[in-house]
Amino acid sequence: MRVQSVAVGGQRLRVAITSGPNGPGREPRIPLLLINGIGASLEALEPFVTALDGAVEVIRFDPPGVGGSPLPPGPYRFGGLCRLIAGMLARPAVLARLMTPRRYLDRAYLERVAGNLYGGSARTDWAAASTALHGADHGGRRTGPSRGYYYQLGAVAGWTGVAFLPWLRQPALILAGDDDPIIPVANARLMHRLIRGSRLHVYPGGHLGLLTEAAGLAPVVDVFLPGP
Question: How many C-alpha atoms does 54 have within 13 Å on its Cβ side?
Answer without folding.
Answer: 4
